[in-house]
Specification:
By secondary structure, the protein is mainly beta. The chain is 0% helix and 55% strand. The chain is built from no helices and eleven strands. The strands form two sheets. Strands 2, 4, 5, 6, 9, 10 and 11 form a seven-stranded mixed β-sheet that branches.
Length: 119
């Protein structure tokens, strides 16, 4: 079983910054991709989650167009931890952010951490 614990969410003013962290523990076989999705207000179905950013074990990353230049994803392979540095936050970034990890056994999800951008 794999557990993911997220932290770092909260309330921030527009233009501010937050850093999310997600640590995976348990039996993790060959983790190759880690990253973050988000689910905005009113989007309650799982398929309405938006991929924010993902990063492979070799460091190659991809981003949603809406966050390019503002968000930076990184990971610590030794700790099975993924980070999301979010700068220049906008009200439309308000969402529940979920981290995930892809392993040989499948994809696992965190419980979500709320990010609210408001003045």
């Amino acid at each position: 079983q794999v557990q993911l614990v997220e932290s770092g969410g909260g309330l921030v003013q527009p233009g501010g910054s937050l850093t999310l962290s997600c640590a995976a523990s348990g039996t993790i076989d060959s983790p190759w991709n880690m990253g973050w999705y988000r689910q905005g207000p009113g989007n309650e179905r799982d398929y309405e989650r938006e991929l924010v950013a993902g990063i492979w074990s070799n460091g190659l990353a991809n981003y949603a167009d809406s966050v390019k230049g503002r968000f930076t994803i990184s990971r610590d392979n030794a700790k099975n931890t993924v980070y999301l540095q979010m700068n220049s936050l906008k009200p439309e970034d308000t969402a529940l952010f979920y981290c995930y990890i892809d392993t040989m056994r499948g994809r696992y999800w965190g419980q979500g951490t709320q990010v609210t951008v408001s003045s």
